[in-house]
Amino acid sequence: MKAVLEVEHLVTSFPGVGRGKTVRAVNDVSIVLHSGEIVGLVGESGCGKSTLGRSIVGLEKPESGRVIFDGVDLGSLSGNRLRAARRAVQYVFQDPYASLNDRQTVGEAIDEALIIVGVASKAERSARIGQLLDQVGLASAVRDRFTRELSGGQRQRVAIARSLAVEPRVLICDEPVSALDLSIRAQVMNLFLDLRDQLGVACLFIAHDLALVRQAATRVYVMYLGKIVEGGGSDEVYGRPSHPYTQMLLASVPEADPMIERRRKIPLIKGEIPSPTNPPSGCFFRTRCPLAVGECARIEPPTIFLTPTHRIACRFANEIAQKSLTDA
Amino acid sequence: MTAEPILIVKDLTIDLLTAHTAVRPVDSISYQLRRGETLAIVGESGSGKTVTCFAPLGLMPVGVKADVSGSVLFEGTELVGANEETLRSLRGKSIGFIFQDPMSALNPARRIGHQIAEVAELHLGITPRAAEARALDLIKMVGMSDPNARLKQYPHELSGGLRQRVMIAISIAAEPKLLVADEPTTALDVTVQAQILRLLKEIQARMDMAMVLITHDMGVVAGAADRVLVMYAGRQAEVGPTEKVLVAPRHPYTMGLIDAIPRRDDAIGSRFRGLSGLPPILGAPIKGCAFTPRCRHSVEGCGAQRPPLRTTADPAVMAACPVLNA
Ligand SMILES: Nc1ncnc2c1ncn2[C@@H]1O[C@H](COP(=O)(O)OP(=O)(O)OP(=O)(O)O)[C@@H](O)[C@H]1O
Ligand SMILES: Nc1ncnc2c1ncn2[C@@H]1O[C@H](COP(=O)(O)OP(=O)(O)OP(=O)(O)O)[C@@H](O)[C@H]1O
Ligand SMILES: [Mg+2]
Ligand SMILES: [Mg+2]
């Protein structure tokens, strides 16, 4: 498989509150996307997932690191070539309220994208709009409604349709389906699977729904406070989660069965949530980690490879993996 | 939980009129809510969940005229037809709310600390200084890191989930008797979600607060709701106790919804189960059962006559499908 998008040692910071303070929202992140694969990105709210996505598509300016598309460092491109590359990597916004123009109708919003990619004939564009709406599960009757007249989930689907209009090779989807009910969610998820299988579109899929990510993604990255703490095949990360944070996350997934859910013991997260402007020394997770020892405060955690594809940033990864094997 | 209903909604029907469209997103909805009780509203995206809950409070976007009929009794006060003053005195104080879209509900130009303190000051009648302290407490309660620094930030400097937590802090600032929460945890990761739900439950138990919870997450419904109301195309498809509706659904739409929940034994990379077909784009009221075109159980006649919401074989559950509940 060929890497279509590589992110190397990316760092993106924001000014924090207080003089000279900064928030390293993305802190030395390296990830890879191959064409025709869906890769999950999960992690605590505020850990930097959207910032990573926005940095990849150029909506935030990274401080250092590289974004490589099709083997070419985007930092070395300019003008038309940069625009073409940017068009091939589309971002589906987390917030469908912010990403659509209230004064446009649904048809106009999609038409705009089609004009940008140079679909010249009006008839052709019109047919394509109908097709795109159908793909995202919207009846063509919405075409003439203003986007402000739609519900949250309907807007989200218009936003997806619009990003598909430019026929991207990479999609950065920021919680694309969390506003949708389960039955439409399934349709949209299957659409992503089809885009992957039929057109080889690569997708970085940011989501909080861990069950959904497990089913859709072949690989997953788990992020905590700006860093990737675990990464690997979905079977590996879900089958043998080996970073304490991943374990905590997976143990918190609610069950849809009321009898089970009401009796379930929800893991209590101990410790203070660390400040992103002033992260803990050593391992960022240690302030909340049940396994932390003195050393965790002193040195950064080593990266341990449990398999060639399953990597964890925790000194205890081997022990945890061993234990989750014997527990299972 | 006491038997006394705090909210009685009866035959609520809402027409939304804009310059060029007329939509009926809420078509004869009835439910009751007791103190301390949680009702989850689930359903198709665009089925009217948000409008059902917010239009009677006078909360609709500008440019839309909401024509509300039926009755919404909150602690004996009729909200349908109530004047703006009455509604304003309830909003934020006795009735707290969390909007689906936190960005539009927050003032982009003001620090979040001010925005929270303002609500506390207004509704609790406390001094500005006490309100500031209260804001700090609330920020801590909703589990935000760096609480002191966060108070000084502007909404655009926060992630989606942090903004949602600010909204939650504002909604509970005045310790309301009824909380209307529109997808309060969708932008949150599961650990924070668990923490927020626990917090809401604590407040609920302490204050005997009633809660309407709009969500797409059946895990949240299972853990937090006493009863569930399922909506489809502006109408009530099914309503009943959570442990019954989620386990033995009696309306074909609810069945499809529950079948679509990803399961542990679904293979990685496998296709998602869902319902085929498209939900209707609402316009004029639909003749017959709105679910007919997507329904596996439909028979002749389903499309002709609107099915009434009726008690099923289980007296605690009501469903609007006479085919499966003859
Ligand atoms: N424009 C900004 N100015 C200052 N800080 C910012 C800005 N945008 C994001 N941040 C900070 O960067 C961190 C990461 O934010 P980001 O939106 O990437 O998180 P996220 O992982 O997408 O969270 P969520 O799951 O809640 O959407 C947060 O601490 C946030 O407050
Ligand atoms: N401002 C508006 N102007 C005109 N129509 C509107 C407006 N807001 C909502 N609607 C219509 O009312 C219907 C119900 O919308 P509502 O927001 O209540 O849906 P919802 O069930 O909350 O959906 P979601 O799960 O996607 O948030 C939608 O079909 C929408 O088209
Ligand atoms: Mg985000
Ligand atoms: Mg809604």
TrEMBL record, chain A:
**GO BP:** peptide transport; transmembrane transport
Instruction: Provide the alphabetized UniProt keywords.
Output: ATP-binding, Nucleotide-binding, Transport
A Pfam family that the UniProt record links to this protein:
oligo_HPY
**Sorted alphabetically, which SUPFAM superfamilies does this protein's record hold?**
P-loop containing nucleoside triphosphate hydrolases
> What is the topology of this protein in the membrane according to its UniProt annotation?
Peripheral membrane protein
Q: Which CDD domains match?
A: ABC_NikE_OppD_transporters
Q: Which GO terms describe its molecular function?
A: ATP binding; ATP hydrolysis activity
Q: Where is the ABC transporter domain?
A: 5-250
UniProt-annotated location(s): Cell inner membrane
PROSITE patterns reported in the protein's UniProt record: ABC_TRANSPORTER_1, ABC_TRANSPORTER_2
Give the coiled coil ranges.
Answer: none
Q: Please list every transmembrane segment annotated in the UniProt record, as residue ranges.
A: none
Q: Which GO terms describe its cellular component?
A: plasma membrane
Q: Which family does it belong to?
A: Belongs to the ABC transporter superfamily.
State the protein's name. Answer: Peptide ABC transporter ATP-binding protein
Give the lineage: Bacteria, Pseudomonadati, Pseudomonadota, Alphaproteobacteria, Hyphomicrobiales
TrEMBL record, chain B:
Which biological process terms from the Gene Ontology are attached to this UniProt entry? peptide transport; transmembrane transport
InterPro entries from the UniProt entry: AAA+_ATPase, ABC_Ni/Peptide_Import, ABC_transporter-like_ATP-bd, Oligopep_ABC_C, P-loop_NTPase
Keywords noted in UniProt: ATP-binding, Cell membrane, Membrane, Nucleotide-binding, Transport
For this protein, the record's SUPFAM superfamilies field holds: P-loop containing nucleoside triphosphate hydrolases
Q: Which domain of life is it from?
A: Bacteria
- One Pfam family of this chain: ABC_tran
Q: What is its main location?
A: membrane
- Report the membrane topology from the UniProt record: Peripheral membrane protein
Q: Does the keyword Ribonucleoprotein apply?
A: no
Molecular-function annotations in GO: ATP binding; ATP hydrolysis activity
Localization: Cell inner membrane
- One GO cellular component term: plasma membrane
Q: Where do the ABC transporter domain residues begin and end? A: 7-258
Family, similarity comment = Belongs to the ABC transporter superfamily.
UniProt-recorded name of the protein: Dipeptide/oligopeptide/nickel ABC transporter ATP-binding protein
